[in-house]
Structure to design on (752 residues):
């Protein structure tokens, strides 16, 4: 199954104002940039003073933002969890490395529902009335302020012990929507179904904006297992208890711990522990996940460099989730059961091991991590390991999702993306940002792009990176000032809207047998600097390929070609982010989902077959129309989803007229491109351009029997990116895209 979006993210601390580690940049560093350009002296001589000043400005900004690293506390946590009573009992012994420069007062935050039993500084009790600030609301936590003794800078570093207990009972709740792409909402939960403690739980005394290391000594019921970051260093079951110890030596933004009744399987691969923590009923899937994990680690270690942890585990969760955490991924049980080992699922989480979980994101400056992870996992894996066709399909997907879910009124700059809450966030933070990295790769070339990616890993692991850092790394690697690139793609909202304003074809009088194609391209303000792949198809069957550089509102380009041009296509392989109209996007179910006017047509007498679909549609207040209201015609002012074909036959036949050249539907069969699918085990989802309005589409979901339809209905809205899908016994056996109503930047040329 092809999920409509990456389902997953990586966990982070609740405070995003984290400091960079030190970095020295001098004019000598700038000189290295120019020395790197000596391979092309002509290009070096042409670099202007403006470019030099631009590079100095970039580096000066970076020099001012790299600050001294904060102190790194160590939490020695001893916890006991009782799932039946939702209770956590804990002691946290907090220490600091020797010779650590500490402020005069340390402040920690703790879950507001916990009772703090006592706090000790250097083994001496502190009066709670003096150091505790009560939460003003349930969304805040206890603040523990501990003044340090005078002269602590010259003496031993302090030790702080906090004893506390309480319950964690925020039951996970489903976030409504047509798709299941967002984890259930919870700040943390302890219960018979499972344990989930995360940064939002504030389940240990947390210091704002500080990386920390941990040692966790956990006690749970004997049939339970705990999983957290780092390495499990001991494990013992006795007296109806399971006691485990975990060591987290890599400084982390936050610590997430889960527990449940797990079947645990492990392998050692190249010194890395590969593990699965699955529910017993899913234990037979362990080999599949272990094999897939090794496959992706092998690929990405070769691409990015050494894996930054000692373990990677696939952990099954008791509520819908897809989270990437340092050294493991937490996936909902429905995802696990479907064997989601694809690049956009498991591969995506493994890439987060580098970007997000060991190279940290500076959230105050936006979120670049999800876009780069999406590019490397969801896109680049297809390019490198599958086929050029698969890579093209992923570029189409990224471009179509961006255009369907955003518009001029509902969009913001990439710089403002922080995390995914809506489909617009996904379109900008994941898809658009991934395309920006693809365009950056084209701009600097493969050598400098991959050098830059590997430099991020080498130089910035354990540190915080923002968009300025990204700009600096690639400017330095390529020896070019890329400030303009990041300004137009990261700082600015929107995308270029390009048109072919005029063209002409004439005989080239200076070159016998040649023709001259003149092409005028225009773009709407604000103007972009673009390198547009251009393909000119010639009458002799050959193609002339070039790059057209558009830098202003309108420019005319002249091409002399050795035969008569018959067709010209700008960016045929979707290499450049562009604004498309809805009629320029192939028909697909997601065009219905995102249409501002949408309705469903369904006969009330046949609702049982579509019950799972209707539940989600009604939750979204979707308008449901009766076929008897329309006779043989359809509304032209909206997109339509037609359910239960046998009772809406005439409407469906009219609605699918936009595909009549290659699609025919009967009561229990469908034919696409002369291939027929029939029988009680078949179901189909097809979308066509609305025959009376190319800005809308008509989708039909039907099948050869109610049971075949019901198998697909629960997950129907995951299948939104194809014009047609054929299902047999609930599994996709064929899929594809139809042409859009109008082709963008693709014109046929008259004879000279």
């Amino acid at each position: 199954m092809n999920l409509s979006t990456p389902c997953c993210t990586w966990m982070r601390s609740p405070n995003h104002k984290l400091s960079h580690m030190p970095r020295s940049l001098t004019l000598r560093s700038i000189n290295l940039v120019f020395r790197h350009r000596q391979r092309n002296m002509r290009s070096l001589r042409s670099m202007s003073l403006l470019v030099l000043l631009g590079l100095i400005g970039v580096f000066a900004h970076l020099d001012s933002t790299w600050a001294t690293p904060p102190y790194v506390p160590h939490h020695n946590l001893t916890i006991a969890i009782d799932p039946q009573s939702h209770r956590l009992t804990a002691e946290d012994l907090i220490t600091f490395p020797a010779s650590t420069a500490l402020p005069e007062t340390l402040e920690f935050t703790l879950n507001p529902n916990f009772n703090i039993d006592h706090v000790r500084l250097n083994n001496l009790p502190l009066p709670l009335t003096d150091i505790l600030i009560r939460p003003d609301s349930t969304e805040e936590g206890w603040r523990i302020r501990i003044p340090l003794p005078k002269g602590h800078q010259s003496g031993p570093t302090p030790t702080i012990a906090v004893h506390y207990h309480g319950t964690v009972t925020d039951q996970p709740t489903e976030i409504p929507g047509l798709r299941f792409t967002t984890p259930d909402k919870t700040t943390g939960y302890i219960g018979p179904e499972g344990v989930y403690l995360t940064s939002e739980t504030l389940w240990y005394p947390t210091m704002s904006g500080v990386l920390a290391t941990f040692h966790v000594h956990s006690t749970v019921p004997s049939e339970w297992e705990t999983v957290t970051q780092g390495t499990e260093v001991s494990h013992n079951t006795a007296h109806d208890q399971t006691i485990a110890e975990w060591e987290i030596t890599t400084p982390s933004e936050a610590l997430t711990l889960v527990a449940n009744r797990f079947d645990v399987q492990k392998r050692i691969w190249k010194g890395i522990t590969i593990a699965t923590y699955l529910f017993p009923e899913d234990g037979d899937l362990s080999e599949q996940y272990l094999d897939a994990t090794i496959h992706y680690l092998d690929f990405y270690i070769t691409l990015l460099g050494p894996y930054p942890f000692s373990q990677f585990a696939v952990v099954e969760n008791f509520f819908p989730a897809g989270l990437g955490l340092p050294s493991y991924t937490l996936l909902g049980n429905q995802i696990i059961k479907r064997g989601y080992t694809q690049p956009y699922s498991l591969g995506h989480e493994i890439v987060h091991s580098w970007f997000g979980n060991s190279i940290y994101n500076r959230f105050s400056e936006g979120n670049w991590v999800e876009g780069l992870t999406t590019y490397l996992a969801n896109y680049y894996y297809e390019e490198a390991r599958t086929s050029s066709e698969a890579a093209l399909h992923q570029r189409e997907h990224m471009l179509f999702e961006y255009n369907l879910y955003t518009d001029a009124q509902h969009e913001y700059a990439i710089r403002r993306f922080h995390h995914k809450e809506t489909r617009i966030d996904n379109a900008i933070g994941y898809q658009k940002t991934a395309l920006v990295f693809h365009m950056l790769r084209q701009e600097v070339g493969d050598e400098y792009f991959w050098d830059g990616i590997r430099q991020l890993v080498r130089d910035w692991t354990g540190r915080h990176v923002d968009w300025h850092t990204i700009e600096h790394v690639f400017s330095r690697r390529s020896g070019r000032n890329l400030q303009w690139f990041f300004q137009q793609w990261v700082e600015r909202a929107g995308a270029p809207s390009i048109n072919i304003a005029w063209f002409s074809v004439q005989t080239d009088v200076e070159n016998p047998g040649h023709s001259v194609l003149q092409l005028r391209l225009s773009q709407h303000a604000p103007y972009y600097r673009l390198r547009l792949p251009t393909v000119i198809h010639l009458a002799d069957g050959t193609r002339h390929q070039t790059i057209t550089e558009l830098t202003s509102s309108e420019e005319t380009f002249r091409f002399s070609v050795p035969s008569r041009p018959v067709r010209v296509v700008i960016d045929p392989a979707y290499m450049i982010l562009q604004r498309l109209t809805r009629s320029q996007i192939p028909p697909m179910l997601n065009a219905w989902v995102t249409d501002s006017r949408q309705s469903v047509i369904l006969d009330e007498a046949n609702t049982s077959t579509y019950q799972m679909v209707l539940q989600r549609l009604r939750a979204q207040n979707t308008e449901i129309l009766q076929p008897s209201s329309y006779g043989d015609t359809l509304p032209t002012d909206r997109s339509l989803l037609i359910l239960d074909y046998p009772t809406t036959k005439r409407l469906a036949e009219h609605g699918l007229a936009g595909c009549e050249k290659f699609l025919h539907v009967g009561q229990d069969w469908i034919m696409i491109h002369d291939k027929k699918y029939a029988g009680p085990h078949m179901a189909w989802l097809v979308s066509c351009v609305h025959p009376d309005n190319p800005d809308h589409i008509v989708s039909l979901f039907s099948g050869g029997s109610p049971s075949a339809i019901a198998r697909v209905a629960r997950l129907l809205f995951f299948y939104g990116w194809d014009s047609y899908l054929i299902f047999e016994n609930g599994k996709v056996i064929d899929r594809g895209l139809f042409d859009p109503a109008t082709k963008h930047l693709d014109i046929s040329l008259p004879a000279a």
Residues 1-7, 10-69 have pLDDT under 50 and may be disordered.
